[in-house]
Queue: 3 jobs
Job 1
Amino acid sequence: MRILFITAHNYIPQRYDGAVQAVNQLCHGLRTKGHQVSVLAALMPERALAFGLKVRVKMRMNAKLAGCKIARSTSSGYPVWYAWFPWETVEYVVRKERPDLVVVTVTQPVRMALAARKTNTPILMLLQDVDFKQHGGAFEDLGQVPCVANSNFTATKYRNAFGVSPDVIYPFIDTARYKTDTSRTNITFVNPHPEKGCDIAIEIARQCPEIPFSFVESWPLSTDSRSELFARIKGIPNITFKANQTEMRKVYRNCKVLLVPSIWEEAYGRVVIEAQVSGIPVVASTRGGLPEAVGPGGVLLDPIQPISDWRAAVLKLWRDDGYYSTLSAAARAHVTTPELSFDYQIDAFEDVMRRAASPTGFETRAHHRGMNPSPVVHR
């Protein structure tokens, strides 16, 4: 099949967050199964400057030739189209790539899906977060659209809010890309943003001066946000900041405990599995899908609990070797469940996309669940 992924999110090499990595690894997994994949994403001028300038030159050239400000790159190993306003270029890219299925991912997914519907190409929604404010339109306008959710938590949120019935496939993680021996010399906190519990992480580090903490950028920090973070951690010598990493195995190589104190509703928690594959236990919040991701391989706390509770959980894992070994073994065992196997995930996604590309396939499933599906029209 020919599959086009579309998003108003930024993409590799300008962004390497969990949503992007999931799509990138899914694309590579589908290519190994003989499918042709491509991506349409938004260009971000302030990241990967040399790449951004190159793409902008291509955009200007294409605007003269085709009347469309868009550029194509194959640096990711498959075609990726970049545009300032990708929803305005969906029809152009569909004409060029001729997909059998359009898969809509995060950031203004409704806006992107409605643009794709104008092409009469079947669509599949890949639900990777529960931030409904970022839909770019009313999800109800899509009707009974086929969906894949990245957790049971995400599926339940969409089912309750919009009446859809997503298939659940956990985030596409090629765990071989993350597995490593670790020196267990620090506690790692990925994505130092307020929504990710940065205040909690900073205070834990402040109260545990004997433990090295590594704060690793994920969502791109603006100049102001970076300056503010640096000012806050300047007086805490046991915190080290690392800029955005393209190779997370290097991060986990020194990690003993992963800290995930999110205060917002995480759809799942990809970094949890990335760490657990190397036997790294997690201290995480109870928000959203994090309990589903952590399973028995870590400790869960409510983000409103006193910092003393978080500090105690971190110190117990840091100091108690027997306790650490037990949770480390549980973390390794957790990631061996079939649903977290990359091969299983790719096979499951193949099944869903074939049904989504076939009006009969989705219609049969929808009626079986008592739904009233909207028609899907082939080109």
Job 2
Amino acid sequence: MRKAVLLILLAVSLGMSLVDEAAARGRRRRGCCVPCYCYPSYNWGCPSATSARGPTQPPTAVLNVNGRTHQIFATGERDETPDTPPPPTLLGKGDGETFAGTDRKAAKLSVGSGPTVTFSTVASLLDDLWPDAQMLDHDPPITKDPKSPRVAEEDRNVHVDAFLYAAKKETDNDFHLIIGDDPDSGSGRFLNVEVSGLPTAGPFKTTLTAARQQFRDLVQGNLPDATGYHRYQPPIPITVTGSNFYDVDHLPGTVGPSFAKPTTAWEIHPVTSIAPR
């Protein structure tokens, strides 16, 4: 009888020690659980973190840009309002590089003829744009017609210091690039800039081809596709040059991922130069 009692007490003691050890392991791993991957210095975290802290999978690639390390995360996030799909005559026939859309094709594949204005921040550029309400009620109206030209407000080129937060490829072969200011600035304001799909010919093909190659070089060949935005963590310091463009395809606030969403339909489109800084 005494032996049986001793065996029971030993079993209980062993069980309690195993529970304590499991609890200790839980406490040690709470900061970075498995299978999620935490990046505390960038406020990215585990399932207990807010959704704004990003995905829980490891990075798809790591970049070294001007001696700084940047991770790429595939978020799976898409725009709330997708681009108009290419017409059936273009579906399945694209080469991945040539512009495959129709909406405002003439404007999208042209560069503004006006002067280039330089801005030191994205916020200062946004403050210098015409209000969305004015552009949505433009006289004459801005239409989606393929021959729709640039309106006077779009005939200006801009050059801005920025940070690249995210990018995604569109079905028309444009790339949506979401830029903002230094994440430490607290600005929280973003702008969509587009590396355009290429014209088949014309005076701007060489410039737009060069810009497309610059973006490819910036992300070191790790181009996003149409399945969702790539997130760059930390955001990549860049300079961007291109033409003002008002996107009537998307209402303000419907483009961009949740963590970096522009509130305007203004863009830089097309990008004529993009480079790290």
Job 3
Amino acid sequence: MAKAIYFDMDGTIADLYGVVDWLDKLQNSDVSPYVEAVPLVDMRALANVLDKFVAAGFVIGVISWTAKDGNKEYNKAVRKAKKDWLAANMPQIDELHVVKYGTPKHRVANIKGSILVDDNADVRAAWEKYNANNSAVDATDSKNLVANLARLLAAA
């Protein structure tokens, strides 16, 4: 049976909320915050842990939302910006979903019974509620996220 670990982007691995005037920019259909966001974690250390997940048979994925109330054209630009950000910062992705804001993430994952790493408590709760085999990792502590993932893998 295939296993996967899915990552949220904004507030989990990408510091969207640290970009100056990020909300005003998104509300004005400006994709620059998605381009300018710096990694929230040491991406080299994350890559090392992800390599171990892959060696243990995991698929690495990202499930992220477009901007709230974004129109079709803007959401397309957001998808491209996020894809480019991942190519530059986290190229070991096997599966990528950049979906409309608010889409339940458990509905888009190709592999059920997987792990979601997300900073949003409601999203994590829904992930676990709608598939008893799913588990979620709280990503609000970005300084310890890589260590927490390493412990999770060691326990698996």
